[in-house]
Sequence to fold (367 residues):
Amino acid sequence: MTFLVYIVLYACSICLAASASKSSMKMGNNVWNYPSFYGLLVVFSFIVGTRYMVGVDYSEYMQIVQWGDHHHYYEQIEFIPRKIVDLVNALNLEFYWWFILMSFLQIFFIARAARGPLVRVFPWTIFVFLVLYLSFYMNVVRQGAALSCFLCAVTYAQERKLWPYLLFFSLGFLCHSSIIVWLPTYWILNRELFPNIKVQYLLLIASAFVLPSVIERLIDATRPYWELFGYGYQAENYEGNETDIVLGSGMGIMFRYLRWFIIIGYYNRMKNCYGSSFFLMFYNLFFVGVCFDASTMLNILLTRVFMYGGFMEIVVLALLLNYLYKSRKSVDQAAFVLLLILLLAPLFYSILSGSLEWRFVWDRFTI
Fold:
């Protein structure tokens, strides 16, 4: 069942995105002018939203929806997820409608970001998103919606459109307050910060050894602000907040680093291909994000806060896959195949090992 669900979800989502992208480029309109765009929203929302007990936080969210404002955690969740809880209860809908609506927000803002040059890589963006972030989105529903809003906001920051940027950033904040750390993106990440590839490699490697102690001191110095945004307990228990890495442990980490090393190696070629004014903000966010990821991957609190930058990998990697796919050079074709292996091997491992077992809400009557 799990393997079939993934095949259907991936195939339908990517094909619908490809159809919307092709129609948009042919007619010169936005992707949301075509039925396939809305087909993507419906397919993703229904399949992901009707899952059952998939994700570590699922049961907690289910109880919040069922108990409403009587649940002790109700007032602590952000405005948009809380109002969707109220809507589901006001309409007397089943609890899973909250997951469907939240899944709709997640995919809508990712798809809404497909504007300008991103239209041509829309199918690749959906592919990379599904491979790298689908499991996370099912675990951390509210922050998944905030990540999608942030991606949409960054597309406007890249175009130097302040008010649309602030609008979508605010929507992200109303989904999950952790996004607030990235508010300065508009002003400080729109120029070339890492021009030298060798320096990028050095920074990525060094970040895993140097940044942890720096971040620990920074958390101690800013503890009141963590309290303000609801992370006081996690900040207070920073050292006890670590978790084991799963997914093949060292093998999963190695695959991630190999993927990042390939992306960095193609930095100059992608910058020249897509243009500095378009490419740099996405890449800067990606690089800052993966540097922090390397130093915070053992800590739940910091991973949640700093992953907004790393999330831009769904754009950067989509741009790279598109570049390699169209290249006729044998070395580029080899890099393309290697990237697909690095992306898909951990996914197949997780499915075959049973760690990604998928059940739907109607299966709860047979469990």
